[in-house]
Design goal:
This protein has 147 residues and is mostly helical. It is built from five helices and three strands, in the order H-E-E-H-H-H-E-H. It has helices spanning 2-20, 39-49, 51-76, 85-112, 121-144, and strands at 22-27, 35-38, 116-119.
């Protein structure tokens, strides 16, 4: 169980790294260079153009996964009752919705054909953090249920 606690606590460092890491590289035309887009730079652009969408993405990309990680740490340290695990599970699913949205944007952008979109290492890091969080939540629930 110690390795599960350590893995979960490592997400407290990995998530902020993933937020600043480049998710994708995009360029309008082949003549121009590719600009890197991260969760944070994307949020900065959204706050300028669409506040409602910015609030939604901020909740999905930043608050949901981080709150789930903190909640799981509190469960592991027995400072939060295990009855909170279903709520933490919902937070994990909300965070995964953000990864789906990013993937959908990439597919749409590639389908238009006017620009160039490449995935970057940050997308894999962010997705890995979300999937690790989901796995940790699942294993924590199984271990707590006595399975």
């Amino acid at each position: 169980m110690l390795w599960l606690k350590i893995l979960n606590l490592s997400l407290l460092v990995a998530f902020p790294l993933a937020w600043f890491a480049p998710l994708l590289r995009a360029g309008l035309l082949p003549l121009f260079g590719l600009s890197e887009i991260s969760v944070i730079s994307g949020l900065q652009s959204l706050w300028k153009s669409d506040v409602a969408l910015a609030l939604l993405v901020t909740g999905l990309a930043i608050f949901a996964p981080y709150l789930k990680t903190i909640g799981l740490a509190l469960v592991h340290l027995e400072l939060l009752d295990r009855r909170a695990l279903p709520a933490l599970h919902v937070l994990g699913r909300l965070a995964m919705a953000d990864v789906f949205l990013i993937a959908l944007y990439i597919v749409v952008a590639k389908g238009i054909g006017y620009g160039k979109v490449e995935t970057a290492w940050g997308l894999y890091l962010f997705t890995g953090c979300i999937l690790a969080s989901i796995l940790i939540g699942h294993l924590t629930a199984r271990r707590r249920d006595g399975s």
